[in-house]
Amino acid sequence: AALTVRFLTRRFIGEYGDMEFIYSRNLTVDGREILFHIWDAPNSQQTEDGSSEEKRIQWADSFVLVYSICDRASFNILPLKIQFIKAAKEGQSQEKVPIVIVGNKRDLHHQRVVSSEEGRLLALSLDCGFYEVSAAE
């Protein structure tokens, strides 16, 4: 949520509850006006049968999966999530679904447990984009 709010408003708010939100905002990107609809769902907002996750996947055109560089578990679940997304989206069409992996909390390098190289290699192996950022900075 912090990364989404930072992207949309350029402000950093450090603490969020475990809530799901849909944000809408017009932004100018490369000189073009683009309407963004962002469904920001924390990882813990899943049902056991995956129906909420399936609904979000069908709703979206592209995906940004964020993990904390300070939390190995948040990184380790990415391959399964990406496989799930690709099976649901690419199974319906021949188009490649845009997926970006983002390592957050780059400013907390002293607490890092997932290296930048691991993130890059995972993204490369799963044919995804990769960035490492700090919502705080």
UniProtKB/TrEMBL annotation:
Record-level Gene Ontology MF annotations: G protein activity; GTP binding
UniProt keyword DNA damage present: no
Pfam families: Ras
Keyword entries, A-Z: GTP-binding, Hydrolase, Nucleotide-binding
Keyword GTP-binding listed: yes
Recorded superkingdom: Eukaryota
EC number in record: 3.6.5.2
Enzymatic reactions: GTP + H2O = GDP + phosphate + H(+)
Family annotation (PANTHER family): RAS-LIKE FAMILY MEMBER 11
UniProt family annotation: Belongs to the small GTPase superfamily. Ras family.
Name of this chain's protein: small monomeric GTPase
Species this protein is from: Pachyramphus minor
Lineage, top ranks: Eukaryota, Metazoa, Chordata, Craniata, Vertebrata
